[in-house]
Each structure stands twice: as C-alpha cells, then as structure tokens.
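Field reference: sequence -> structure
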Amino acid sequence: MSKRDYYEILGVEKAAGEEDIKKAYRQLALKYHPDRNPGDASAEAKFKEATEAYEILKNPDKRRQYDQYGHAGTQQGFGGGGGYGFEGFDLSDALRAFMRDFGAFGFEDVFGGRTGRVDTRGRDLQVRVKLTLEEIATGVTKKIRIKRHIACPDCKGSGSAPGTSRRTCPQCQGAGQVRRITRSFFGQMVNVTTCNVCSGTGQVIGTPCQTCRGDGRVSDQNTISVDIPAGVAEGNYIPIQGQGDAGRQGGESGDCIVIIEEIEHEIFSRQDSNIVCQIPISFTTAALGGTIEIPSLDGAEPLAVPAGTQTGKLFRVRGKGIPHLRRKGRGDLLVQVQVWTPEKISDADIQLLRKLAQSESFKLPKSSKSFFAKLRETLGV
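Structure field:
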C-alpha cells in the first residue's frame, strides 16, 4: 500500500474532526469504488488507499499513534499491540470496511440510487427575466407571474380528508424504507430500498382529500415581486425562497430561481462593468480637434477630441459604465471614434481637398519601409 500521508490522501487538515474525515473518505470511496470503475486498477488502488487512511484516522487511538510515530505506529504489534496492521489489507478488507460504515446508503450511491425516506420537498422553479442595459444600470423591481403547486386549502397540505389523519405505514413501520439482507462473497449485504407502500414517507393516507386526491397540493397562479440589484449580468440568478412548488403531503416548498437575461442594446455592448460604443467623427474634427456629444446611460455627455486623433482611437469616460455588483463604484464608458468619410462632396470641396493634398501636412509620413513591405512582413509572405 502507498505510504503517503493519510491526511494528504483524504485531503483534510491534521486538526480535522471525525465528521470531516468521514465525509472526505465517503467522497473518495464513492469516486473510486470498484463497482463504479470496473477493471480500473488505478481506481482500485486509490479506493484501498483512501480506506486505509480512513481506518486509521477515524479511530482516536490509532490516529494518536499515527500522529506520534507515523506509519510505523500503524503496524501490528507496535507499542504493545495498539497498531492496526495493514500488511495484508486488500480489496476485500476495503470493501467490507466501506459497507460496514456506510452500508446500503453508500452502496446505492455508487449506482446512483436513493435510499431512506423520500424527499418530499417541492420542485424548484426557473423563471427567466429579460433586462435592458438601462435596467441593469439602475436596478429594477419586476413583477413575475408564475404557475406552481400550492398547499391544498382544504386539507392544509396533508393529503388526508378533513377530519382524518395519516397513520404509520404497516410495511416499513414508519421508517420509509425496507431492508433486505443477502449474503455474498464479501459477507452479509444489506440492501435498503424505498418502501413501495408509503413511497418513503413512513405514513399512509386512510382517506384521501377529495380536492387534491391525497397529493396535498393544487395548481395555482400568482404574481411575485423580484428586486433585482444594479450590476447583474447574463446568467446571474436570484433565488426566491419558498416560491417554488409546495412539497407533497406537507413537504417543504421549493424555491423560484430567477435567471437574468440581457437584451441586446442598439448602441452599447458590455464588457463586465464597462460599456463600449463606436462614434463617428468628421475628418475636420479628427484633424483640428473639438468637442463632440456622445451617448451614455445617463444621457448625452461631452467628449473632448484632441487634434490629430486617428480613427480607432479609444477614449475612456470614468464612472459612466455599469455599477459593480459586489462593491462600490461603476465601470467606465469606452468610446471608439471612427473617422467618417463623406460619400458625396461638391465640386468646390473637391478643389479644396486637391489643394490640401498638395500640402506637406496632408502627405503620408515617410518611413524606412514601404506600406507593402510592412504588409508582406505582417503576412509572412
């Protein structure tokens, strides 16, 4: 067997309590159980390794010796017979140890089954809410109409007719489960299944409610208000506790999960808490500079454009983006300017542009490499 540190194997701290050790082992054992990983020697080895670590650390005396002497303290006969002795610890031992502490509860989980009482909690509902960027920026309260199951008003959710009550299931005696013991190569096996008479509730209804027919629920529609904070994003969700389906026969109600969707904006795109837009500017503004008006979520804003601005230049307007969801402040507004070229110009403007073209100020700057040489270099041709 591996002689890695037992705490490292289980992924727990040395100060971990008994429940933490048990929980960590159960997760590893279910992950690497041979029945879930048939023919996988590596998984089998990890299953045995985790079980060995668990057998030592769950026992206060063995754990104390291991903490003091390391792996030597786990050997049989060490310190007057206090050690466990894992020289012959094999897969059969590991499987028996697993079944001993977790029985069918752990075994059913290996195969994806369920044991014990049936969970009567109601189903969670999902509702998608579409928001504009303006609503996301300010926060909003939305009214949502939902269709769900509520507790039957006649039987108050019990499922029993008024004036009657449920009684203990005669088959499982209120346990909600039925145990069957079988024997196998590995020894006695306990198989636990949900009671088919009471469906795992432990109780049966003598006289069902005529309104809900024993289910304890009826269909209903109602409207709820959801306060959506500023700064939410696509895919964020808000759970509204107790607004899902009511549970069967008096079970706890589920939740209503409100999932956020963003409506595409005609001007802005979003990058986290920043918003981005493209704004056209005239050639004269780009060349001479000036102040232009730009849109924002708070209305029009002035933006100073310096002389000689090139197309594609990105300007940042601080604090004009989306509020941060979990901290104070807002993102920024990023404005990319694009120099606009008129498609039609007058003859007089053509003459002016031809004169400007002769000016040294309007000629492309000379460089050591021609434009086409740079292009070939970029493309690697």
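Note: The radius of gyration is 36 Å.
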